């Protein structure tokens, strides 16, 4: 029943998008390689008109000792106007080594001092919609969101389940083309992880700001970004992500994760290319990690 209702909603949104003027299609493929033989493939599409958009994404990755690939998919339906944007999303981590999950959430954003007549892609927000990037000498975006994830680990005698809730807020600004944004997330769990007899596998835990999927139950995560126009089509960028993790049983507390990234975006009329390198340091771990990606995208 839930699947049928979701399908009706998606088709209704698709019909609304098709009825809008000048529908646009964007998409991209991002291979990620790095430490511990990490190999990931992230693909996304965004189909939308002036205001409505639907954005499916697919992630697949493996690493040394993963015993095969982890696969997941998400979809977000968004509505963006000159002053306000909102979206709803859902996702699924497909069964692997007895682990699986479902997720659902919503997000919203506001814009101060925008220019232009159509929707705006928020600075630091969740939208991948077809709306153009906002213009102006100065602009401020802010908003937040919520996501709930139901983790499940199959067991021989009983399944282990855990519900994770993420609350986040963001603020972004554009001044003379320079984009700066910050995002802070707080995580809550349905049980005290310090006293839990068993927990689901945490190998599939995407974190905003990380090229790879993290391993652990996050407590807080802060992400900061800056993007500077160098030439009309070339935009270097850098970001920093600091994440703390929940303490576990037997007094075990995973080390904090610090991720620093740098890269460049090159945008042509129909083609966009992005290259990035990321260094990850985990407190208490002697082995540091490095990841890199090269993204190719189309804008039709």
Rg from alpha-carbon coordinates: 20 Å
Report the major sheet: 14 strands, antiparallel, barrel
Shape: globular
> Spatial order of the strands in the main sheet?
1-2-3-4-5-6-7-8-9-10-11-12-13-14
- The total of helices stands at 1
Strand content: over 45%
Task: Pick out its properties.
300 residues, mainly beta, Porin, 1 helix, 6% helix, disordered N terminus
Account of the 3D structure:
There is one protein chain. With about 300 residues, this protein is mainly beta. The chain has one domain (about 1-300): Beta Barrel (Porin). Helices cover about 5% and strands about 55% of the residues. It contains one helix and 14 strands. A 14-stranded antiparallel β-barrel has the order 1-2-3-4-5-6-7-8-9-10-11-12-13-14. The longest helix has 18 residues, at about 1-20. The two termini are about 35 Å apart. Mean pLDDT is about 85; it is low at about 1-20 and about 130-135.
Please provide a brief summary of the model.
With 300 residues, the chain is mostly beta strands. It contains one helix and 14 strands.
List the helices and strands and how they pair.
Elements: H1 2-19, E1 24-34, E2 38-48, E3 52-62, E4 70-80, E5 84-96, E6 99-112, E7 138-153, E8 160-175, E9 178-189, E10 218-227, E11 234-245, E12 257-267, E13 271-282, E14 289-299
Antiparallel strand pairs: 1-2, 1-14, 2-3, 3-4, 4-5, 5-6, 6-7, 7-8, 8-9, 9-10, 10-11, 11-12, 12-13, 13-14
């Amino acid at each position: 029943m839930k699947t049928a209702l979701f399908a009706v909603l998606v088709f209704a949104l698709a019909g609304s998008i098709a009825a809008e003027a000048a529908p646009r299609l964007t998409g991209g493929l991002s291979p990620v390689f790095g430490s511990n033989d990490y190999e990931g493939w992230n693909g996304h599409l965004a189909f939308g008109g002036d205001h409505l958009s639907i954005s499916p994404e697919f992630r697949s990755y493996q690493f040394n000792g993963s015993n095969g690939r982890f696969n997941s998919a998400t979809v977000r339906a968004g509505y963006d106007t000159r002053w306000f944007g909102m979206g709803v999303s859902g996702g699924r981590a497909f069964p692997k080594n007895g682990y699986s999950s479902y997720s659902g959430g919503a997000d919203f954003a506001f814009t101060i001092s925008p220019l232009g007549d159509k929707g705006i892609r928020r600075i630091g927000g969740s939208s991948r919609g077809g709306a153009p990037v906002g213009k102006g000498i100065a602009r401020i975006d802010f908003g937040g969101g919520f996501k709930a994830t139901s983790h499940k680990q199959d067991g021989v005698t009983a399944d282990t389940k855990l519900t994770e809730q993420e609350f986040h807020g963001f603020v972004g600004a554009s001044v003379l083309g320079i984009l700066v944004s910050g995002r802070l997330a707080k995580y809550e769990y349905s049980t005290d992880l310090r006293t839990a007899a068993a927990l689901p596998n945490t190998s599939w835990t995407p974190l905003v700001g990380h090229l790879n999927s993290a391993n652990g139950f996050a407590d807080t995560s802060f992400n900061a970004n800056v993007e500077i126009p160098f030439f009309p089509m070339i935009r270097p960028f850098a970001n920093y992500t600091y994440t703390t993790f929940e303490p576990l049983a037997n007094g075990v507390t995973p080390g904090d994760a610090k991720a620093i990234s740098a890269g460049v975006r090159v945008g042509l009329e129909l083609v966009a290319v992005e290259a990035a390198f990321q260094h990850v340091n985990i407190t208490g771990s002697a082995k540091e990690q490095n990841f890199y990606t090269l993204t190719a995208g189309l804008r039709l």
